[in-house]
Design brief:
With 118 residues, the protein is mainly α. The protein has three helices and no strands. 61% of the residues lie in helices and 0% in strands.
Length: 118
């Protein structure tokens, strides 16, 4: 017995799905499309995830900046409490204090009198 001959070069016709199965197929494709769109642009989708990462990075940068500022303020507070030169400069600048024996000269600009030229 010999086996039946096979045709290699001929294309076989594509089997069509029954009408009921076609509707299910279209519905399945539609559901997959909706789920894919939701995964990309939904409330917890890819785009929102990227935005959250950027906000997170910005907040980390802000925290680092605040840590640096906090350390700077701690150092300044230590200097104000312990360094006599710093204490003196603040007292002179902000409170107008002077050392005993110092003479203070206050120089004010005079405005020219009305109608007179200097």
């Amino acid at each position: 017995m010999t086996s039946p001959p096979t045709s290699k070069g001929t294309a076989q016709p594509r089997a069509r799905l029954p009408r009921r199965h076609r509707g299910l197929y279209v519905l399945g494709v539609l559901i997959v499309c909706v789920l894919a769109a939701n995964a990309v642009i939904g409330e917890r989708g890819l785009l929102e995830g990227r935005r959250a990462e950027r906000r997170h990075d910005n907040l980390l940068d802000s925290i680092k900046s605040l840590h640096r500022e906090n350390q700077s303020l701690k150092n300044r507070a230590k200097r104000i409490q312990k360094d006599p030169t710093t204490i003196e400069s603040i007292a002179r600048r902000e409170l107008g204090l002077i050392r005993p024996g110092e003479i203070v000269f206050i120089v004010k600009d005079r405005l020219p009198a009305a109608g007179k030229t200097p």
